[in-house]
Every structure is written in structure tokens, then in C-alpha cells.
Amino acid sequence: MDRYNRSVLKAASVLLSFSLLSVTSCVHPNRISRGILRRLTQRGESFVLVFGSVSTTKGTLAFPTIRFSRQADRSSPEYPLKSLTITSGERFYAVLQGPKEASYTLPYLDEFYISVGSANSGFDRINYVRLSEPEAPVAIYVGEIEMSPAPSRTTQGPGITVDVRDDFQNASRELKRLYPRFEGTIVRAVGLRNPAVPAPVPQPNRIR
């Protein structure tokens, strides 16, 4: 192979590598793809699309994480549904489905807890969501969650302070822009002060 052909192949290889890197960098790490949503809908699978944002004061909390889990009661083990580590403060979009265990027989996800924190600060449950069997997929907005270290941490208390801001209208518009073919109901999660004791959930706000 002459020098010219080797140069052409080298340039093509560099261009291909650059193209793959560009495509990879454009993939949002905390955003479910439209293709996955479309396939779930076409197969008729029951799922919950959760969305919101997680942020923290720069440099004060390493690797802020939001966790979604299900726990039938205090004596039962906690089943992890989804865990997202978010460093950008941008909104996340994730799919939750019922536990893949033989003991779980419902065809849909009936409830879940939301916890936030980090490996260093520990985790704090901030919300509980109870669901009835949906007729169509549902998207649940969990708020704009901001975490910061607690002013003083005891051995029993949480190591973080959590503030949840409601930006439901803007977040819903962004969801419709990113997922224009999502035809499910979009609702706002209702926060509970004591997630260990589920309370009756009032009718959520809906947009069509």
C-alpha cells in the first residue's frame, strides 16, 4: 500500500472516530430514548415515566443521586427500580416498571418511594407515590430538587437539606417537546411529609 492510500485510510479512521465520539457525546446520560418509549408503548407494557431535575451547590455535594424504589412494608426488603447520578442539574427522564420478581403479581407498578442524597451524605426519602392501575402510560413530575449539606448532621439525622421547587408547566412543555408521541397522562406528584405512612392521594393536576 503506497503512502497516499495509507494517509487516506488514516484520515478516514480519524473522521470515523470523531463522528462516533460526537454521536456518543450527544446522548443525554439521564434521558430515556424515544425509541425505547415507542417500543414499550407498542408492546402494551405498563410503565411510569418519571421526570424532574436534581441539582446541588457546586462543589458542596459529590455525585448527587436520586433513587426510585418499592418497599411493600417496613419488614420487606427495598426493591431498587432506578438510580440516577446527576451532575449537570438538567432534567432527567426515566422509566419505572414493576419489580421483576415472582412474588410481585400485579401487571403494573403500584407504588414507589423517591430518595435523594449521595454516598457521602447518605440518602433521605422525600416522597411516596401510590398508583392505581393505569389505562395508559403516565408521566409523573417529581419537581426541581435541590440538595445541599445540612448545617449540622447528627448520627441519626439526614446529611442533606432538600428543597423541591414546582415548575410543572415548564417541565411538562419540555417533556412534550422531547417526546411528542407520548400520549399518556402527565401529572404532578403529591408530596407526603411522612413517606413511611402513606396518606390518601388527592386528584393530581393534569394537562392534556
What does this protein look like?
The chain is an alpha+beta fold and 208 residues long. It folds into 2 domains: 1-29; 31-207, Immunoglobulin-like. Helices cover 21% and strands 33% of the residues. The strands form 2 sheets. Strands 1, 4, 7, 8, 9 and 10 form a 6-stranded mixed β-sheet that branches. It has a 4-stranded antiparallel β-sheet with strand order 3-2-5-6, with no helix packed on it.
Secondary structure: elements and pairs:
Elements (H helix, E strand, L loop, with lengths): L2 H24 L7 H9 L5 E9 L8 E6 L8 E7 L5 E6 L14 E8 L3 E9 L7 E12 L10 E6 L2 H11 L6 E4 L17 E2 L1
Parallel strand pairs: 1-7, 7-9
Antiparallel strand pairs: 1-4, 2-3, 2-5, 5-6, 7-8, 9-10
Number of helices: 3
Radius of gyration: 21 Å
Please, what is the average pLDDT?
78
Assign the CATH architecture of the largest domain.
Sandwich
Secondary-structure element string? HHEEEEEEEEHEE
Which consecutive residue ranges, at least 5 long each, have pLDDT under 50?
A: 8-26, 192-208
CATH topology of the largest domain: Immunoglobulin-like
Q: Helix/strand-derived class? A: alpha+beta
**How far is it from the N-terminal to the C-terminal residue, by CA?**
63 Å
Biggest sheet details? 6 strands, mixed
**CATH homologous superfamily label of the largest domain:** Immunoglobulins
The general outline is: globular
> How many structural domains does the protein architecture include?
2
Number of strands: 10
Task: State the helicity in percent bands.
Answer: 10-25%
Percent range for β-strand residues = 25-35%
What is the CATH domain class of the largest domain? Mainly Beta
What is the quaternary state of this protein? single chain
